Amino acid sequence: KFKNLSFMITGKLNNMSRAEVKSIIEKNSGKILSSVSKKLNYLIIGDKPTTKKINQAKELNVSVINQKELIKLLN
User: Which residue of 1, 18, 54, 59 has the lowest C-beta tally within 10 Å?
Assistant: First the structure.
């Protein structure tokens, strides 16, 4: 489902560890990136996200989504 899509996580996620989310994304052929760049498709935000990352993502027109939106993408 996530072929050719890249993701990054910032903040604390509810009821899921980062490792679980990374695993789900990778199982669906997505990539996890470690920094915000033009190559990033989605920035997943949890509780207390890094404001700098959100601002960088918005400047680069990266989609900023929350955990619920990620789950919708999976379904």
Answer: 59
* Cβ proximity of 57 and 66 under 8 Å: no
d(CA 29, CA 46): 22
DSSP assignments along 23-51, one per residue: HHHHHTT-EE-SS--TT--EEEE-BS--H
pLDDT, tens digit, 9 for 90 and up, residues 22-51: 999 999 999 999 999 999 999 999 999 999
pTM higher than 0.90: yes
3-state secondary structure of 1: coil
- CB 34, CB 8: distance < 8 Å: yes
Distance CA 60, CA 24 (A): 25
